[in-house]
Each structure stands twice: as structure tokens, then as C-alpha cells.
Design brief:
Blueprint (H helix, E strand, L loop, with lengths): L2 H32 L21 H10 L2
Amino acid sequence: MDKRETAAIDRRSFFRKASLGVGAAGVAAAGLSASKAKAAEPVADASNGAGYRETAHVKKFYELSRL
């Protein structure tokens, strides 16, 4: 074998192994993100009156921004 041929084989095997490593890392990351707990959904409580209100300054903002 020529010196160039052995270098080409080594380079190919390096990229093959590197792609396998990246793929394994991706699978591991996907597995970790799938096991995370889901976020709790916010509960709308209209009894305390702390919600969205269209006050005068909000209406003025809508008017000026043309929404």
C-alpha cells in the first residue's frame, strides 16, 4: 500500500467513527429530553379580577400601533 492510501483509509475511518459518535450523542440527548416532566398549565382564575383588561392606556396603545 502506498502512503497516500493508508492516510485515506485512516481519514475515512475517522469520519465514520466521528459520525457514529455524533449520532449516539443525538440519541442520548433525545432520550434525556423525552424524560423531562411536562410544564404545568396555568389555571385561569377570574374570581380575583387579576386578568387582562382593556383599560384606557391599552386602548390608546392599540390606537397608536394600529392593531
